[in-house]
Specification:
The chain is α+β, with helices and mostly antiparallel strands. The longest helix has 32 residues. The chain is extended and about 120 Å long.
Length: 667
């Protein structure tokens, strides 16, 4: 009897209508079928309780339109709008909160109290990843259909799973298309971009709140740890959400941060957006844009974003009674001039050590491309960079020693070590030192190259006061990498609030680690989820261990040797292979002149194997030569094996005898 009723109900659901108690209920309205009122126990003490005064009650799912129905029209056209969010409940996979589902099923039929079996589900209605299961009562005399939710809801009938999905997308840095493909591979019914955008906005605002709180806490901690009192020292840098070629910067958005020197945490952050999709579309249509959270706040070029953001953040710190006295940043913008104009001349700017080294290396490569010096190869440039880095690291706060050290680098690679400082190994072992880091382990000899190298070095010698007082923006670069992970440069998201949300997620992660995700759940009054806490705590522990390992000297040495070995291997392979890839190589050379033959790789060394003692005997020998040079000659050889001995003098070549002293030539 129950199976027959279930079949009839299922057919009526598919037709869009269901008869109950001589009334007609339309399935497209969730309120037409009375819902069960059982809710699982609250598992967190910060939950907000919504009552009828808030416009929503436990008995009513009328506001489920807050979630878009699953739009099958996104995948294939439908002929009946009534069925647009109805799917067969036993097709595909679902994300289900087992505790919630079990609680509702145990409660049973609302009409007769009979336990509801999941197998009696006649239809399912989707709201993103959440869904309502319409289950027919197993009691043949009842025939009542109860709708059972597969997860928790909050606010005005908003599914928790969809909100957490929005937070997960923002935190993980994936796009909607990638998410849809992932769900398709898992055979989970997807959701519309509208649903995801609504939940992205809900969770994103909570992420921004958490980011602001962590910045305020970081400011208090930075001020407390400022030993000398007065102003604090911060590092600043900016990043953009579009890759630049080095010549063209046309990103629609950019971000910037101030990071404290003592805490290494973000004290302030800012985002600039040049475009709003809603405003743009309304302007194109000639209509008034709908009410929305517009994030467009910049009309200038992308290059001018960095000075404006940094100056604005310093001014904001000053408004909060926090004075910035030292600013560490790169040499790529006019920020310091603008900042002094707004904040006063007391602001001191320090250059970034890594950018100074990068600029020096780029000048060497530019010289290599311009002059084609045979001795200025990658190995030579790497050695010059290393000497330059040693000089910068060892003589900070000592301009005079910095001047001498920088001036000794060029003579060092030409064999003159009279002015070398402590970074030179020749001073420790002058008799055995060999310049193995230069090509063929020989000193440079080109005088024209020497003049060009001294011209480059003189630029830094003249600015010795600046290079002897350097800082680091490495924390800012690390933050920019985190933003690039959460906001890939291949995605355009700055037309809405998504860019701001993802930058805020990077700020929260920089300040408190990945555990900010649990704080977002608290801000939204969602359950904290034990699995979420376990995973983020494990990831934070792993990150702390990696940070400790990456900063160790052993790791840095191994990284250097691996990089050196890889570079040498790459260079040797390119020499053997010839020109295989280059810009316009086919246009520059005729096809018949292109050499596609490769030099065979070197033969592998023979494997060493141990022989039985009966197969060999020990022979000890010694040689006497005319000197230690490569052109020396052997003049005597002697050997012994047990009681057997061997000894012979060797007659020298006549040409070589003439070079020997008369006393040896007469022997």
């Amino acid at each position: 009897m129950a199976d027959k009723i279930a079949g009839n109900v299922s057919r009526r659901f598919k037709n869009g209508r269901y008869k109950r108690n001589n009334t007609t209920a339309t399935v497209t309205q969730a309120t037409e079928v009375k819902e069960s009122t059982v809710h699982p126990s609250i598992d967190h003490d910060y939950s907000r309780t919504f009552t009828a005064e808030d416009g929503w009650s436990d008995d009513d799912y009328s506001d489920l339109d807050n979630e878009d129905d699953f739009d099958e029209n996104f995948l294939e056209p439908l002929h009946n709008d009534v069925q647009r969010n109805l799917l067969e409940w036993n097709e595909g996979k679902r994300v289900v909160e087992l505790g919630v589902l079990a609680s509702y099923l145990q409660k049973g039929c609302e009409k007769c109290g009979f336990i509801l079996p999941l197998s009696n589900c006649v239809q399912e209605r989707h709201y993103g990843l959440g869904s309502l299961l319409y289950i027919l009562c197993k009691n043949g005399d009842c025939g009542h259909v109860t709708s059972i939710p597969t997860g928790k809801m909050h606010g005005k009938s908003i599914w928790d799973i969809n909100t957490k999905l929005g937070a997960g997308v923002t935190s993980s840095g994936i796009s909607f298309s990638a998410l849809l493909l992932l769900l398709a591979v898992l055979n989970i019914p997807g959701l519309t971009s509208t649903t995801l955008k609504k939940r992205d906005r809900e969770s994103g605002k909570a992420i921004e709140t958490i980011a602001s709180k962590t910045c305020a806490e970081a400011c208090r901690e930075e001020v407390d740890r400022n030993d000398g009192g007065g102003g604090i020292r911060v590092s600043a840098d900016a990043g953009w959400q579009t890759r630049s070629s080095g010549r063209k910067y046309n990103s629609f958005s950019g971000h910037s941060v101030l990071i404290g020197d003592k805490t290494g945490k973000v004290l302030q952050y800012d985002v600039r957006c040049r475009k709003c999709r809603i405003c743009y579309n309304a302007e194109k249509k000639g209509t008034t844009p709908a009410e929305h959270d517009c994030r467009k706040n910049w009309d200038g070029s992308a290059k001018s974003m960095e000075p404006d953001m940094i100056v604005g953040m310093i001014k904001g710190m000053k408004d909060n009674n926090i004075s910035v006295s030292e600013l560490v940043m790169d040499e790529d913008s006019t920020t310091i001039a603008r900042a002094k104009k707004v904040c006063g001349e007391d602001l001191t700017k320090y250059s970034d050590r890594n950018h100074i080294k990068k600029t020096f290396t780029n000048k060497l490569y530019d010289l290599q491309r311009a002059k084609k010096y045979s001795q200025l190869r990658g190995k030579t440039i790497a050695h010059l960079k290393k000497c330059f880095s040693y000089a910068l690291a060892q003589h900070q706060k000592n301009p005079e020693e910095m001047r001498k050290s920088l001036g000794a680098i060029v003579p060092h690679v030409y064999g003159d070590h009279s002015e070398c400082r402590t970074w030179c190994k020749h001073r420790r072992n002058p008799d055995t030192y060999v310049p193995k880091n230069l090509p063929y382990s020989r000193y440079l000899t080109s005088e024209e190259l020497r003049v060009d190298l001294e011209n480059i070095m003189s630029t830094y010698v003249q600015q010795v006061q600046k290079v002897s007082n350097l800082g680091s923006t490495q924390a800012c670069e690390s933050f920019n990498n985190c933003v690039a992970y959460k906001h890939p440069k291949t995605l355009y998201l700055s037309g809405s609030e998504s860019t701001c949300f993802r930058v805020a997620a990077a700020v929260a992660q920089k300040n408190v680690g990945k555990s900010y995700v649990t704080e977002v759940n608290k801000e939204l009054s969602l359950s904290p989820d034990s699995q979420t806490q376990k995973v983020v705590e494990r990831m934070d522990r792993k990150r702390a261990l990696e940070k400790e390992r990456y900063t160790s000297s052993a790791y840095k040495k191994r990284k250097f040797h691996l990089k050196k070995s890889s570079s040498q291997d790459q260079e040797s392979k390119e020499v053997r292979e010839g020109t295989t890839y280059a810009t316009s190589v086919e246009m520059d050379q005729e096809e018949k002149s292109q050499d596609i033959e490769s030099i065979p790789p070197p033969l592998p060394l023979p494997a060493r194997t141990s022989l039985p003692k009966d197969y060999y005997t020990w022979i000890f020998f010694d040689l006497e030569t005319t000197g230690l040079g490569l052109t020396s000659e052997i003049i005597e050889i002697g050997a012994t094996r047990g009681n057997d001995t061997f000894q012979r003098f060797i007659k020298l070549l006549a040409a070589f005898q003439q070079k020997l002293p008369w006393c040896m030539a007469s022997i």
